[in-house]
């Protein structure tokens, strides 16, 4: 970790530091926010919090397409980063969702803080796996530089990845460096009519074979499988697996709607303000029914490792979490529902003690997004 002296701060970062100092002096919570497209995620923000908008701190700092690394300021629109990468046929392979009507609302800082990944996470890994480094401002106003811009970085603890998904509770993310990947040469989507149990078994059987499966999803009695890679490998997989090939426009719409949760399945939860649960399970887990709902009322992703469920019966969270825990997984209230209670699975006391020590190290005054992860964090 390196600390950058205050004298190097730009006028924008100096304003951020002044806002942090004022919040510390007045003991007023700071709500760190980019475009606000993921405000629904996590516990409700502090009602008396002052919003610190990061969008004025925007721009791509460095992009080395040969080294597959991009560095950007936290307020940079994801759309700008994706456009710059597309010019060189590269991409953010973990497919961060925007969750925005306006494609320029979502920021890279917000994506980093939320730590969410799209359908390709099944094959390439999560956002956290692509983080190389981050610059963070703590509640003392110090600039902390973690990691770097190369894959092999062993200088101390990997704090930059620790902050991915922390929902801004540890500090103000100023800049982030991420690994990018080339776009695949060939992309095809197959569709198979089958029940959920058969789909899970099939995906786990295919998972042990050398197939270029980039993403999968089961919904409404149909299994969708996305194949990406070299042209020869994709053609061979199509020949081996069979199924019905979706046309390019249909496939692109399906995977985009899945990533952005604009698919009809998710729209039902969003429009009806119904609790949407994300259940993380071992991929081979047979279909599970939560509460009074049928297992067929779910959407299955990531080779069976992620199950989405809309709770229409106001099922107690303990019932859902107990069912997930018995299967070796955990459950998160992703949207709607009671956000004043536990949204994420409660952690054991020893682990919470570690969390609190980390929080105290970076935010001893407790001003950054208090309560977004846990009630007292």
From TrEMBL:
Q: Where is the signal peptide?
A: none
UniProt keyword ATP-binding present: no
Per the UniProt record, which residue ranges are transmembrane? none
Q: Please name the InterPro entries in this protein's record.
A: FAD-bd_PCMH (IPR016166), FAD-bd_PCMH-like_sf (IPR036318), FAD-bd_PCMH_sub2 (IPR016169), FAD-linked_Oxase-like_C (IPR016164), Oxid_FAD_bind_N (IPR006094)
Q: Indicate yes or no for the key word Electron transport.
A: no
**Residue intervals of the FAD-binding PCMH-type domain:** 1-183
Q: Which top-level group of life is the source organism from?
A: Bacteria
Q: Which PROSITE patterns match?
A: FAD_PCMH (PS51387)
Protein keywords:
FAD, Flavoprotein
SUPFAM superfamilies cross-referenced by the UniProt entry: FAD-binding/transporter-associated domain-like, FAD-linked oxidases, C-terminal domain
- Please name the PANTHER family in this protein's record: D-LACTATE DEHYDROGENASE, GLYCOLATE OXIDASE SUBUNIT GLCE
Q: This protein is called what?
A: FAD-binding PCMH-type domain-containing protein
């Amino acid at each position: 970790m390196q600390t950058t002296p205050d004298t190097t701060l730009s006028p924008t970062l100096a304003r951020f530091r002044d806002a942090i100092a004022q919040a510390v002096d007045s003991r007023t919570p700071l709500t760190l926010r980019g475009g606000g497209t993921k405000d629904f995620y996590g516990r409700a923000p502090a009602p008396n919090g002052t919003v610190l908008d990061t969008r004025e701190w925007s721009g791509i700092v460095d992009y080395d397409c040969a080294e597959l690394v991009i560095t950007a300021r936290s307020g940079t629109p994801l759309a700008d980063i994706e456009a710059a990468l597309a010019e060189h046929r590269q991409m953010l392979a973990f497919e961060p969702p925007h969750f925005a009507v306006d494609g320029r609302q979502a920021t890279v800082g917000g994506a980093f803080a939320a730590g969410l990944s799209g359908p390709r996470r099944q094959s390439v890994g999560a956002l956290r796996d692509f983080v190389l480094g981050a610059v963070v401002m703590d509640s003392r106003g110090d600039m902390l530089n973690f990691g770097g811009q190369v894959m092999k970085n062993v200088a101390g603890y990997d704090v930059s990845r620790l902050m991915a998904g922390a929902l801004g509770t540890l500090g103000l993310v100023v800049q982030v460096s991420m690994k990018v990947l080339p776009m695949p040469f060939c992309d095809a989507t197959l569709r198979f009519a089958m029940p959920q149990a058969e789909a899970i078994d099939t995906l786990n059987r295919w998972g042990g074979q050398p197939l270029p499966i980039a993403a999968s999803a089961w919904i409404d009695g149909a299994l969708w499988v996305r194949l990406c890679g070299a042209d020869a490998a994709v053609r061979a997989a199509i020949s081996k697996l069979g199924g019905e090939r979706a046309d390019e426009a249909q496939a692109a719409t399906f995977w985009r709607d899945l990533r952005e949760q604009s698919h009809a399945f998710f729209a039902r939860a969003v429009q009806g303000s119904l609790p949407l649960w994300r259940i993380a399970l071992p991929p081979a887990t047979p279909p599970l029914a939560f509460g009074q709902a049928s297992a067929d009322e779910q959407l299955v992703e990531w080779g069976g490792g992620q199950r989405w469920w809309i709770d229409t019966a106001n099922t107690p969270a303990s019932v859902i979490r107990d069912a997930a825990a018995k299967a070796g997984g955990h459950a998160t209230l992703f949207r709607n529902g009671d956000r004043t209670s536990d949204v994420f699975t409660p952690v054991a006391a020893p682990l919470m003690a570690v969390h609190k020590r980390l929080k105290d190290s970076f935010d001893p005054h407790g001003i950054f997004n208090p309560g977004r992860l846990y009630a007292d964090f």
